[in-house]
Design a protein that fits this description.
Number of strands of chain A: 4
Helix content of chain A: over 70%
Oligomer: heterodimer
Strand content of chain A: under 5%
Number of helices of chain B: 14
Number of strands of chain B: 2
Order of helices and strands of chain B: HHHHHHEEHHHHHHHH
Number of helices of chain A: 11
Helix content of chain B: over 70%
Largest sheet of chain B: 2 strands, antiparallel
Strand order of the largest sheet of chain A: 1-2
Distance between the termini of chain B: 46 Å
Structural class of chain B: mainly alpha
Radius of gyration of chain B: 20 Å
Strand content of chain B: under 5%
Order of helices and strands of chain A: EEHHHHEEHHHHHHH
Strand order of the largest sheet of chain B: 1-2
Shape of chain B: globular
Largest interface: A-B, 43 and 37 residues
Shape of chain A: globular
Radius of gyration of chain A: 19 Å
Chain lengths: 295, 337
């Protein structure tokens, strides 16, 4: 059997794939956080809960209405996005002229409520969500065995990430968005409806979290706690990348996922800690983050 | 060096005077002292009317919230990782008392020192960024400490350290007697709050407030803002640790619950609910939250939903907290008139 650094190549690539999958979710979630923070100056603590909501909506649609994976892939982000729009209109929009920390605290409370509700009705144990038939099974790539669904997750997350990047960097709507980030008052004076833009942005960010959730449902188990465990790691990712750039958030997400996978190969005990250690090192060397613009 | 220091002190005393005048115009001092005196009397009498364990839990969390408020309310730094100091100190104390057979006072001091050390490390990294990033860094580092506690052998994983002996304080006072334990906790609580009050109203505390109000101006006045922030962080950590150590002795165990991010959130809620930047607010907030949790524990209604709802309501409707609103409405009007 071929070995790399004294480790069977199969195991090595397997962990690397797990890292890549985790990285896909880090990238999608930190992307959503960066999009929301860019315009609203709010750190969306509820992002993890919205991710969990996306997964649960997929699970509930299947269990109670018999609606399968593919329609859920559209419906779950849509519902989570609408939920986000309601939250923004009713609450977050009242907090824009206060200290940004209040936005963090409000969304923290929201996350607790969402998690509490699902925990109350579904307990803490995970519920399995079957891989859709089209993507079940795997492909032998010659050097390793790739479960089809995992391949799909990587491809889908790349599409989502670069689609969002293109939407923000290359379209007219994106240019309004970027302009409003720089100077909302001026953009408003030019006749752009900035409050609507803010609402849609939060909706879009939430929908991204929901989409990540439904993509994650067949990989991890659907559990009320799946979001809060993840969101703290994503915060570390965001600190490493800096929230200045969309591309930075995406690249950092994949990078840290891979770093985590590699650590699992060489020193499994530290795999939970490695993202935080990298964060600490980045803070020492480059406090603004790898892609950050300002301190 | 000495010239610079005396200049600094002069400036500081100016600032102190200004703020003191401001407060004395708003709140009559005799009223404040009478209320504090009455509160202490009530706490002295309380164990004869209320279940002492509940009171002790309340006092531990009240001290924890006051320590947290030293950082959030008076320095303007939102730490999302204070569970590390609270729970970490509980582990250190429990280990020292149970495994090494240390007396309770030594165990508590060790817990405080350990929390201060953790505060030094976390603060060292966190003060490199401000505002929202500061919150995220402290949260991430405390999650790291949580994972460390899950794996480290001395914490005994999911079981936690159980059956910690309360011991005999200074070789004289038997803490296994409930009433002795209560008065010890009360004494430590009062001492801790007094220390915080002294810190906040010292020249050092004034500099902390100036950092809260306008960090750039504090820098341009020549203060080494980073070291002041770090010092405040360490003090807050040590006092939070004191609360955690005390809790470990009272309840005779230390578990993972106290180092989770939910615990960090809980102390934020206590402070926010009572009133950020007030001396009494965190005490009231902590009492209410502990009381609410005790009530809900028997009702079957999930605590997280209640906590989350209170968070949302506080942020949306009364950001100044109960005591802050009271000050603003009653005393603010009296001060004007």
């Amino acid at each position: 059997m071929t070995m790399i650094f004294g480790i069977p190549v199969q195991a090595f690539l397997g962990q690397l794939l797990v890292g890549l999958i985790n990285g896909s979710f880090y990238a999608m979630l930190s992307l959503g956080l960066a999009v929301i923070f860019g315009l609203l100056r709010v750190i969306n603590f509820a992002h993890g809960a919205q991710y969990m909501l996306g997964a649960f909506i997929g699970y509930l649609l299947l269990t109670y209405l018999g609606i399968g994976y593919w329609p859920a892939l559209i419906l779950a982000p849509l519902i989570v996005g609408l939920f986000g729009i309601v939250v923004e209109r009713l609450a977050l929009s009242r907090l824009y002229d206060t200290d940004p920390l209040y936005g963090l605290l409000f969304t923290f409370g929201l996350a607790l409520v969402l998690e509490g509700i699902f925990r109350y009705y579904y307990g803490v144990s995970g519920n399995p969500y079957a891989v859709p038939p089209l993507l079940s099974g795997g492909t032998n790539l010659g050097f390793m065995f790739l479960p089809n669904y995992r391949g799909w997750v990587v491809v889908a997350s790349l599409i989502v990430c670069f689609g969002t990047w293109a939407l923000i960097e290359k379209t007219r709507l994106g240019s309004y968005l970027r302009a409003a980030t720089e100077n909302p008052h001026l953009v408003q004076a030019f006749g752009v409806n900035v409050p609507l833009l803010l609402t849609l942005t939060y909706g879009l960010g939430s929908a991204l979290a929901g989409l990540a959730g439904i993509l994650a449902a067949p990989v991890y188990q659907v559990s009320p706690l799946m979001g809060s465990d993840l969101i703290i790691v994503v915060f570390a990712v965001v600190v490493v990348g800096g929230m200045g750039s969309i591309l930075g958030a995406i690249v950092t997400g994949y990078m840290l996922g891979l770093a985590e996978g590699l650590t699992k190969v060489f020193y499994p005990e530290a795999s939970n800690l490695v993202v935080f250690v990298i964060m600490a090192i980045v803070l020492l060397v480059r406090p603004a983050g790898l892609f950050g613009r300002d301190a | 060096m000495s010239e610079g220091t005396s200049e600094m002190l002069e400036e500081t005393s100016d600032m102190a005077e200004l703020t003191l005048r401001e407060t004395s115009a708003r709140t009559p001092a005799w009223l404040e002292w009478t209320l504090v005196g009455l509160a202490i009397l009530a706490l002295l009498a309380a164990p004869f009317f209320v279940y002492p364990i509940f009171l002790m839990k309340m006092l531990c969390f009240a001290l924890f919230a006051c320590a947290f408020n030293l950082l959030l309310g008076y320095t303007g730094l939102l730490s999302f990782g204070h569970a590390t100091f609270f729970g970490g100190a509980a582990y250190f104390t429990a280990h020292a008392v149970k495994v090494w057979g240390w007396p309770p006072e030594a165990g508590i001091l060790l817990g405080m020192a350990g929390a201060a050390l953790l505060g030094l490390v976390m603060g060292f990294f966190a003060i490199r960024r401000q505002g929202i990033y500061f919150a995220m860094i402290t949260l991430a580092l405390s999650q790291m400490f949580f994972f460390f506690c899950v794996q480290a052998p001395f914490t005994q994983g999911e079981d936690g350290i159980q059956g910690v002996p309360r011991g005999v304080l200074l070789g004289v006072l038997d803490l296994n007697v409930s009433i002795n334990m209560y008065y010890f906790v009360l004494a430590v609580f009062l001492l801790g709050v007094f220390a915080i009050w002294r810190i906040v109203n010292s020249p050092f505390g004034m500099i902390l407030r100036s950092i809260r109000e306008n960090e750039n101006r504090a820098i341009s006045l020549g203060y080494s803002v980073a070291s002041y922030k770090l010092a405040a962080f360490i003090m807050s950590a040590a006092l939070a640790g004191l609360a955690g150590s005390l809790k470990a002795i009272v309840f005779q165990f230390a578990t993972l619950t106290d180092v989770t991010w939910q615990m960090s959130g809980e102390v934020i809620l206590m402070t926010l609910l009572g009133g950020i930047g007030t001396m009494v607010g965190p005490v009231i907030g902590a009492s209410l939250v502990v009381g609410l949790e005790n009530t809900l524990a028997t009702s079957g209604f999930p605590v997280t939903i209640a906590t989350g709802l209170i968070f949302m309501v506080c942020v949306l409707i009364f950001r100044r907290g109960i005591v802050g609103e009271l000050y603003a409405r009653v005393l603010g009007r009296a001060g004007k008139g």
